[in-house]
């Protein structure tokens, strides 16, 4: 399996390069300690050959790899017409300092290679619901469009955290746990609040056609169901 392809997701109207939906791959920056510019370019070219438009860069707080990797990643993306966005990991090494997040978004968010929804830099997290209150200040300082993963608390609570700070949600709760079959519970928890709509069926075998900018159609396996104002769909290969 190619290293970038562990998980992909699609966002409607988020990137200027996409007419309808753009496909993102979750990419763990902590695995790139020994990467040079050519390695980043190779990963991006592999992603592009699979029809992927952007990497969501998962980063643990305090990881010095981030400082080395980000300039290389953005340089490689600019040379190849690719997009990147930040996914701040609160589970790997603990919560992020909000001042560091603000600094990083303001440094990179205006780049043409940074993924946006409209003019707003798109920002995500892996967990971190206990720090939801930080994001009111972060959003005010960066004008970002915020779509966290707070699956550990469930969607009904997640949309209320931090005074309803999330602009949308995504979920990692999309696959069977060990020998247990997938149920409709994760989907059902997403009905109702703040316009979140249910798309998935009763298992992880539903399919979704994504119309790509090149007008070709790729069939993706629908993996999750969290949508706010038609903005977000998680899929996996």
UniProtKB/TrEMBL annotation:
Gene3D superfamilies: Glycosidases. InterPro entries: Glyco_hydro_71. The keyword Hydrolase applies. Pfam families: Glyco_hydro_71 (PF03659). GO terms for molecular function: glucan endo-1,3-alpha-glucosidase activity. Keywords: Hydrolase, Signal. Residues 1-20 form the signal peptide. The keyword Plastid does not apply. This is Glycoside hydrolase family 71 protein.
